[in-house]
Input
Amino acid sequence: MESKVIHEISPLMGKDVLYIADRRKKEFTYPIHNHQVYELNFVEHAAGVRRIVGDSNEVIGDYDLVLITSPDLEHVWEQNTCQSEDIREVTVQFDIDFNNSSIFSRNPFNSMKKMMVEAQKGLCFPMEAIIRVYQMIDTLSSLKDGFYAFTQFLTILYELSKFEARPLASSSFAKVEITSDSRRVQKVKSFIDQHYREDIRLTQVADIAGMSASAFSRFFKLHTGRNLSEYIIDHRLGFASRMLVDSTHSVAEIAFSCGFNNLSNFNRIFKKRKGCSPSEFRENYHKTRVIV
Output
């Protein structure tokens, strides 16, 4: 049988808005999963736990706060080397409509709506953000009045939206649509998304943006934080990681189908960026899956 990710059914019922699970435990045992509703997950006293979100694989410290808003993005917190006897995990699953027809699409909620879109790849918040919302997360499950619990949770989301959170999964792995404030960058990213299997040259994309090669290089790095070659490699690696998880193709077939024309080069780059070989990535990822 094919190994599949568990699609978790949320306890949220028809008219519910929040499901809050505040628990103490000694280990993480729940397998990799996804779910239809949004989720904010806070973990403390869990240094050494391995967090997998899409193709992101990291060992966390004492505190971890992650927001996930994609129904298809697999995630799991694994015990790994954690020795803590008093792990606390607060999970908030929520169903809030941020579409254009709802009140949450209006101006006071702009930063929250933007954060929800970015969290389709999973967002990891910095320590200063955790400190800012810690007391509100700490007391959330003790609020018996649903209105006050909801307004406190909205405040948590709003405060988090003020911080620069770090995306976890790559866009290509998470199957997230490319968006950008700059039309030129959007145009270039769309071109790369369609032609990442091919040999893409700087002059080629600079022409698409209507700029000289040197001006485009500065412009692209300013808007994306990466130079063009780094962006293309990361984009290819995201597709390759997804294929390693979802297909039975060989590593060589995946490498060549994702635009790498040299297998050893693919293996070297993959290990440098992901911390393991493609074969190890596939094996480790499937170890977290269950038969359903």
Observations:
- Residues 228-246 form the longest helix (19 residues).
- The mean pLDDT is 88.
- The CA atoms of residues 178 and 187 lie 10 Å apart.
